[in-house]
UniProtKB/TrEMBL annotation:
<protein>
    <recommendedName>
        <fullName>Molecular chaperone Tir</fullName>
    </recommendedName>
</protein>
<dbReference type="Pfam" id="PF22550">
    <property type="entry name" value="CesT_Tir_1"/>
</dbReference>
<dbReference type="InterPro" id="IPR054345">
    <property type="entry name" value="Tir-like"/>
</dbReference>
């Protein structure tokens, strides 16, 4: 399947999931989506090449905190889809998941997107505490 047809398939799935497509770039095969009910704001959905990459910014990382990083790694073990990761600069905590485009279906995409909301809800206290400590 071509990159363009993957892009169209993913757009159809996003529309079926009733998320808001805030921006799309067919040339880059990118979407930026939101859905307040699912805890999504400016989620990037990249369907270039053979992989669908989903990334959602969570919070800025102001300082290294080994205990916080260790807890995130433990949380990653519990997540059904995706993981909490740091960006390349180590300054932003992201939720990220990757899926194969060749056999992607609506249920798989929905499960990955919903995993973010579940992960945030389940671990909100940890994330809020860390964010408050960063602000102090």
């Amino acid at each position: 399947m071509s990159e363009q047809s993957h892009f169209e398939t993913v757009r159809g799935y996003l529309e079926a999931l009733e998320v808001t497509i805030d921006h799309e770039d067919a040339a880059e095969a990118l979407f930026r989506i939101s859905d307040n009910a699912r805890g999504i704001a400016n989620m990037v959905v990249d369907c270039e090449d053979d992989l669908l990459v989903i990334e959602q910014g969570i919070l800025a990382i102001g300082r290294d905190d080994v205990a916080f990083y260790k807890k995130l790694l433990q949380i990653n073990r519990e997540l059904v889809h995706g993981a909490f990761v740091l960006d390349d600069a180590g300054q932003m905590l992201l939720f990220r998941d990757t899926l194969q485009l060749a056999n992607l279906d609506l249920n798989e995409l929905e499960a990955s997107i919903n995993a973010l909301g579940l992960g945030l809800a389940t671990h909100a206290q940890l994330l809020l505490t860390y964010a408050a400590e960063q602000a102090a």
